[in-house]
Amino acid sequence: MLLLVINNDSSKVRKHGETYFTIRMGNREATQYYTKSENTSAIQSKARYDSKYEHITSTGYQLMNYEPGSVFKLNGKEYVLSENHTLDIPYGEDLWYLEYPSNYRFCEKID
């Protein structure tokens, strides 16, 4: 459940699907991402989501310490780490629910 209270008659909230919403107050506007994960704040900026998504799916920056072929899970689906250290996850998935391989702790492989 998402409860949003704004005490301004000129404010507007526009919802985009299940995870994005935009708040507009006067000439200012901000799009936010709603995560159901209990591991972080429920509301994240769209910019933060986009940055996290890019690091996981394009640059591989966030996953550089994992071996290619490592298996990650998200919403019951398995994703295999590519040679470029990226995952092919659809945009909009709740990245804060990503399950990292169990044979790693703090980005380091354990035996």
Helices and strands, in order, run as: EEEEHEEEE
- Quantity of strands, as a count: 8
Residue share in helix? 10-25%
The percent range for strand residues is: 25-35%
Main sheet record: 4 strands, antiparallel
Number of helices: 1
Global mean pLDDT: 83
Structure overview:
With 111 residues, the chain is mainly beta. Helices cover 11% and strands 31% of the residues. It has 1 helix and 8 strands. The strands form 3 sheets. The protein has a 4-stranded antiparallel sheet with strand order 1-2-3-4. A two-stranded antiparallel sheet has the order 5-6. A two-stranded antiparallel ribbon has the order 7-8. Strand 5 (71-74) and strand 6 form a beta hairpin. It is elongated, with a radius of gyration of 17 Å. The termini are far apart. Residues 5-11 have low confidence and may be disordered.
What is the topology?
Layout: E1 11-16, E2 20-25, E3 28-34, E4 43-45, H1 46-57, E5 71-74, E6 77-80, E7 104-105, E8 108-109
Output the keywords:
4-stranded antiparallel sheet; elongated; 111 residues; 8 strands; mainly beta; two-stranded antiparallel ribbon
